[in-house]
TrEMBL record:
One of its GO terms (biological process) is proline transport. NCBIfam families: Na_Pro_sym (TIGR02121), sss (TIGR00813). The keyword Nucleus does not apply. Belongs to the sodium:solute symporter (SSF) (TC 2.A.21) family. This is Sodium/proline symporter. The chain crosses the membrane at residues 6-26, 65-85, 121-140, 160-182, 189-206, 226-246, 267-293, 305-329, 362-382, 394-413, 420-437, 449-466. Keywords: Amino-acid transport, Cell inner membrane, Cell membrane, Ion transport, Membrane, Sodium, Sodium transport, Symport, Transmembrane, Transmembrane helix, Transport. It holds the Pfam family SSF. It is found in: Cell inner membrane; Cell membrane. It comes from Roseospira marina. Signal peptide: none annotated. PROSITE patterns: NA_SOLUT_SYMP_1, NA_SOLUT_SYMP_3. Catalyzes the sodium-dependent uptake of extracellular L-proline. GO terms for molecular function: L-proline transmembrane transporter activity; proline:sodium symporter activity; sodium ion binding.
Length: 485
């Protein structure tokens, strides 16, 4: 057994151990879904960042830079702007409002309470959207994990897929939100270190930055130009990835779970510092990788990070760095499984099927939901030709367009009505599905942009010209707003 394998095994056992510890302190549904709203700023920041970036940061983004060059940086720029605005505009308001809205534990729970929706339509629809798009999102992470095991250990893709899924299911099943958050914290540190070390060592192996640019230019001079083959619409389309932040349930859950409003500025500083450093590291890994491998073509560009760690580092160090990819994958999948489980447990089972269910029963329903959802997502990930970036982009667009404008408007505008939120959500989700279904996409624009715009416009127009928001919900909005100002 080589050093890389030993490192992987120790890492996996450590994640499972955290799940067992968290299991012992998880007593009720609030603990299982939100950790009792007890997260400190450091854990909140790195947990949000790690669950956000996933295997996309170490596989998808470096692969995109390796394959197409610097014109892909607009995705990173849009993400950084979107993440900052999410921390600034959404985090404090959502933390206060969810606690005041009958201690809402999930996004569907919050929306129902925010608009006093007795029909349960908002809750059910938003839970369905979560389950639909998280199926694709979770599958993307499982594909990334399987590619890692396949490349590292020479395992068959199917075997690698089920091994990765099994470990994630184990600690998420046991420990719920606390296990997910603490494992994400550790995984975030690993990801950060890997994205700093790998591009620096690769640069040293190539020689100097001038050597890098010369080698890249020799392969394709256009790879040096961030504006190559880009129109204004194309730049806006890539940067529109940042709009997705406002509607990602697994990120919003961290805002809901932070210990207090006073911790948010510290968490924002830590989270944004981590994110910007990570994005730069991923960009330079892909770009310098072009120079290192020269004209040689890699069969799968999304494996450029994996290949660099294998050829440039001692097996022990390589094992630690490759564990960072596994960390990135696991940190997102576990969060997605938990949010999906929460939607089933809190928004369907407890609210509709068994209102009298005990906390113990609900926690076990949540655990069984994790298992079922994970198995379905794993079956969907059995196609090894699936692109991590493609799967992530579809799910990211679905959440961003369906929830993003509704979350923003619900926290920033007292006049948003229940019908405005409902029809806006439907319009955003449908727009993403229809736009994506067109060959190559209409006008070659990322589907989140039209989906976000359509959702926002429908929500505003229905609120203004349809049945207005009730005076009770406006008064409640004013009361809560005074608490976060």
């Amino acid at each position: 057994m080589d050093a890389t394998t030993i490192t992987f095994i120790i890492y996996l056992l450590g994640m499972i151990a955290i799940g067992v510890i968290a299991y012992r302190v998880t007593d009720n549904l609030s603990d299982y879904i939100l950790g009792g709203r007890s997260l400190g700023p450091g854990v909140t920041a790195l947990s949000a960042g790690a669950s956000d970036m996933s295997g996309w940061l170490l596989l998808g983004l470096p692969g995109a830079l390796f394959a197409a060059g610097m014109n892909q940086i607009w995705i990173a720029i849009g993400l950084a702007i979107g993440a900052y605005l999410n921390w600034q505009l959404v985090a404090p308001r959502l933390r206060v409002y969810t606690e005041q809205a009958n201690n809402a534990l999930t996004l569907p729970d919050f929306l129902e309470n925010r608009f006093a929706d007795d029909t349960r339509l908002l809750r059910v629809l938003s839970a369905v959207v979560i389950l639909l798009f998280f199926t694709f999102y979770t599958s993307s992470g499982l594909v990334a994990g399987a590619k890692l095991f396949e490349a590292t250990f020479g395992l068959p893709y199917a075997t690698a897929l089920w091994i990765g899924a099994g470990v994630i299911i184990c600690y998420t099943f046991l420990g719920g939100f606390l296990a997910v958050s603490w494992t994400d914290f550790i995984q975030g540190i690993l990801m950060f270190l890997a994205l700093i070390i790998v591009p620096i060592v690769t640069l040293m192996a190539v020689g100097s930055w001038d050597d890098v640019t010369a080698a890249v230019a020799e392969k394709d001079a256009n790879f040096l130009d961030a504006f190559h083959d880009m129109t204004l619409l194309g730049i806006i389309s890539l940067a529109a990835w940042g709009l997705g932040y406002f509607g990602q349930p697994h990120i919003l859950a961290r805002f809901m779970a932070i210990r207090s409003l006073r911790d948010i500025p510290t968490a924002r500083l830590i989270g944004m510092g981590w994110m910007v450093a990570g994005l730069f590291g991923a960009i330079f890994t892909g770009f310098i990788g072009i120079a290192y491998f020269g004209p040689e073509q890699i069969e799968d560009p999304e494996k450029v990070f994996i290949l660099l760690t294998q050829v440039l580092f001692h097996p022990l160090v390589s094992g630690i760095l490759l564990a960072a990819i596994l960390a990135a994958v696991m940190s997102t999948i576990d969060s997605q499984l938990l949010v999906s489980s929460s939607a089933i447990t809190e928004d369907f089972y407890k609210q509709i099927l068994r209102k009298e269910a005990s906390d113990k029963e609900l926690v076990w329903v949540g655990r069984l939901s994790v298992l079922i959802i994970a198995v379905i997502a794993t079956l969907l990930a059995t196609d090894r030709e699936s692109s991590v970036l493609s799967l992530v982009s579809y799910a990211w667009a679905g959440f961003g367009a369906a929830f993003g404008p509704i979350v923003l408007l619900s926290l920033l505008w007292r006049g948003l009505s229940r019908n405005g939120a409902l029809f806006g959500m439907i319009a955003g989700a449908v727009t993403v599905v229809v736009w994506k279904a067109q060959t190559g996409g209409l006008f070659d624009v990322y589907e989140i942009l039209p989906g976000f715009i359509v959702c926002g416009l429908v929500a505003i127009l229905v609120s203004l010209f349809g049945k207005p928001a009730s005076e009770d919900t406006k008064a409640e909005y004013d009361r809560v707003r005074a608490m976060w100002r």
